[in-house]
Fold:
Amino acid sequence: MLEFAGFTISDLLPFVLIGFAAQIVDGALGMAFGVITQTLLVSAMGVPPATASASVHIVEVFTTGTSGISHIWRRNIDWALFRRLVPAGVIAGVIGAYLLSNVDASDAKPFVMVYLALIGLFLFYKAATFGDGPKFRDPKVTRPLAFIGGFLDAAGGGGWGPVVTSNLLVQGGDPRTTIGTVNSAEFLLTLAISATFIATLGFAAFSIAVVGLIVGGVLAAPLGAILASRIDARWLLFMVAIVLTATSLFSALGAWGVI
Structure:
């Protein structure tokens, strides 16, 4: 059996598959990489929750970078929106990562998840009533949204994609460019958050799970960008609504100990 850095290819494969599946969803819909990977790492693979959370942030440096390049290639980026999102998101992400050891954001998480589930239901309504022809408009509330999303992503163990993507869509953003722009901006956010975590925690979270998730996520990133550029806007809204509602309710019920 082939071995890599002390473990075999068969040891690596489950994490590669998890990373591949999660990035397909995230690249196409602009959210859920963290939720999917952390859920499967903890529940299916037995990885401790704290290790899973730190590992996912390190992995996302690679997956969001590849995803961003792929969305640029597919011309899924609104550069004006990108410039409005990045500074506020990065600043908030660094603050959230720095305060993580002193501020417990877990108590607020289920309430944020319920809010996102309601946003998902609203997006489902928007998709169901989606008429013929484009009805998109430039989102107006962007910088405060990016700040909230960046802080929650660092301090709460995820949130950039669900918070920012869903609320931009509620404001009338084009699903294709909204997903591509939020995914691409996430690279700079994740880079800043990971650098802050590494500066304070070191490289203890770098493990076989990280290697496998990186391989699977990087392989899947171009496919997610292609799907986002080719799927009809109405069906993108439907899929975002379903994924957002399902993952948010699952996270909220898990935080309250129901499941």
Summary: The first helix runs from residue 9 to 29. The mean pLDDT is 82. The first strand starts at residue 3 and ends at 4. The chain has ten helices and two strands.
